[in-house]
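If your schedule permits, I should be very grateful for your opinion on a structural question. I have a record of one protein: its chain in single-letter code and its fold written as discrete structure tokens. Would you kindly read the sequence against the tokens and tell me how you understand this chain to fold? Thank you for your consideration; the sequence and its tokens are set out here.


***
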Amino acid sequence: LAHRALDLDVERAVARLKPGLTELAIAAPRLVSGRLAERIEAKRRRYLEARVPERVATRVATLELLKSGLD
């Protein structure tokens, strides 16, 4: 997205990116390891301790992984 023209057609961009980002969001928690996995799990636990629903906690904790899906 950073390298697209300034007249970005948002609707078209969303339609183009959504399938891949959805797939990445589902797979992301299983694709990481090491320190990154530990950091994401720590975030997820903090959200859970704050009584955020598990599905939301997992999704928000893995958001940083999705930025690569925009390339």
In short: The chain has four helices and no strands. The helical segments are 10-31, 34-49, 54-61, 63-66. The mean pLDDT is 87. The first helix runs from residue 10 to 31.
